[in-house]
Design goal:
With 439 residues, the protein is an alpha+beta fold. It folds into 2 domains: 216 residues, Enolpyruvate transferase domain (UDP-n-acetylglucosamine1-carboxyvinyl-transferase, Chain, Alpha-beta prism), CATH 3.65.10.10; 216 residues, UDP-n-acetylglucosamine1-carboxyvinyl-transferase, Chain, CATH 3.65.10. Helices cover 30% and strands 26% of the residues. It is built from 14 helices and 23 strands. The chain has a 4-stranded mixed sheet with strand order 21-22-1-23, with helices on one face. Helix 4 runs parallel beside helix 6. The two termini are 13 Å apart. Bound molecules: ligand EPZ.
């Protein structure tokens, strides 16, 4: 394991006292900017990306893209410039691509522009099997051949003429409403010949955000953010000095909102877009959490003896309850009065983390891969726990800071993949958290 992967967080809990106070500023969205980096491969000229979060997954994405022979300059904090040369390697580096699932979004633009791409089966979190049939079937529909060889996928477009489009437009129905599946095929279709229609796309706002930027640079994409996306192939795009500005991270905003609800006297969450987490906000308000909203800010506050009532949650594509907030919300539910069903409909492995919460004193019963019941309120006690993935990692931080006693959270590398300098930002609002290297 690399050094950075041997770090732990040591957290001394508040034992249920809601003492945190202050404000956090939300960074650019991981699940928007990774796709934006991939989209730069559709451009003839250089592309500037702004408000880029300095997180591990961005470092991983930059390393993969540089490994293809693409120039990526980090101009300053949060500002990157990408310039694609005439020819690049079309083989994603195995080791690093396996480290995070999002590397797969590069395959669409590379295949569409250069006529071929090879990549390992993407790795990432342990939240589920993470099949890639939507991508492979989509590429075949766009006129490519798919071959498996030594744990790699080799995709080759049938069109090999160097001056004409490598792929042809197609009508694609997504078997499952896959977020990166829709986004990857949408990007490939920008360079395909003719019209592509993608049906059963999920409505996640990051897809519309991406399409809006591509359209401002010459693409012809209609319906992004709805379940039917129509793309007319236009050929390479030109930024002509336009910069991509990463939108605020709705999952980070939601994570801090949940943290504030269980541990803060008053917490301001700045530079966020409350409209993108209405499902969470309405759910927390239903439980009795005091939340005030303004255009780019959320304020959550609580009195010492506030009691929250429990409620069931069921994860769903946008605008439903986000699966990426299920783990932090499950921790919140351990502090509410009553019994709640947590129904994780999207990933079959995303409730595995509850076993560690039970070891911290939570009263949770896992019925099957998709359903658990949480009884509360429970006083949690500090333990040594392992973060299995990005979002469960943050859920353990929330559990540790409301627990009685000290917790040690391993694999903070996972948390760093999705949240920039989270320990520094938490210390600023009163959390007793220290990052330590494992000796
Ligand atoms: C995106 O992942 C996000 N990642 C995930 O965030 C998020 O949890 C997920 O969407 C759902 O909202 C990025 O945007 C980089 P899916 P993605 O394809 O696109 C099945 C985080 O913590 N499926 O929408 O990989 C799949 O197994 C991450 O920030 C297939 O069956 O998720 C799952 O059950 C985690 N075949 C369902 O679709 C496929 O080919 C939804 O997954 C693709 C997906």
């Amino acid at each position: 394991m690399e050094q950075k992967e041997k770090e732990v967080f040591v957290i001394n809990g508040l034992a249920g006292n809601k003492k945190l106070n202050g404000s956090v500023v939300i960074n650019g969205a991981k699940n928007a900017v990774l796709q934006a980096f991939a989209a730069t491969l559709l451009f003839q000229d250089e592309v500037v990306l702004k408000n880029v979060p300095e997180i591990e997954d961005v470092k991983n994405m930059v390393e993969i893209i540089r490994g293809l022979g693409v120039s990526v300059e980090r101009r300053s904090r949060g500002v990157y410039v990408v310039k694609v040369p005439t020819n690049i390697s079309t083989e994603l580096a195995k080791e690093i691509s396996k480290k995070f699932r999002a590397s797969i979004v590069l395959t669409g633009p590379i295949l569409a522009r250069f006529g071929k791409v090879s990549f390992p089966h993407p790795g990432g979190c342990v939240i589920g099997a993470r099949p890639i049939d939507i991508f492979l079937n989509g590429f075949e529909a766009l006129g490519a051949e798919v071959e498996e060889k030594e744990e790699s996928h080799l995709i080759k477009a049938k069109g090999t003429n160097p001056t004409t489009p490598k792929l042809r437009g197609a009508r694609i129905f997504l078997r499952v409403p896959s977020v990166t599946g829709a986004q990857t095929l949408m990007m490939a279709a920008v360079l395909a010949r003719g019209k592509t229609i993608i049906k059963n796309a999920p409505l996640e706002p990051e897809t519309k955000n991406l399409a809006d930027f591509l359209n401002s640079c010459g693409a012809k994409i209609k319906g992004a953010g709805t379940s039917v996306i129509e793309i007319i192939g236009t050929g390479l795009l030109r930024a002509k000095g336009r910069a991509y500005k990463t939108p605020p991270d709705r999952i980070e905003a939601g994570s801090f909102l949940i943290l504030g609800a269980v541990a803060a006297e008053k917490l301001e969450i700045k530079n966020c877009n409350p409209e993108e987490i209405e499902s969470l906000i309405e759910t927390l308000r239903y439980c009795g959490v005091k939340i005030e909203l303004s255009k780019n800010k959320i304020v959550v506050s609580s009195e010492k003896n506030d009691k929250y009532k429990s409620t069931d949650i069921k994860t769903h594509e946008y605008p439903g309850f986000p699966t990426d907030l299920q783990a932090p919300m499950t921790v919140f539910l351990t502090q509410t009065e009553g019994e709640a069903l947590v129904f994780e409909t999207i990933f079959e492995g995303r409730l595995n983390f509850v076993n560690e919460l039970v070891r911290m004193g939570a009263d949770i019963r896992l019925w099957d891969q998709h359903r658990a019941t949480v009884k509360g309120p429970s006083l949690l006690h500090g333990r040594e726990v392992e973060s299995p993935d990005i979002r469960a990692g943050l859920a353990f931080v929330i559990a540790a800071l409301i627990a009685n006693g000290q917790s040690i959270i391993h694999n903070v590398y996972y948390i760093d993949r999705g949240y920039e300098k989270v320990d520094e930002r938490l210390r600023k609002i009163g959390v007793d958290i220290v990052r330590q290297a494992l000796v």
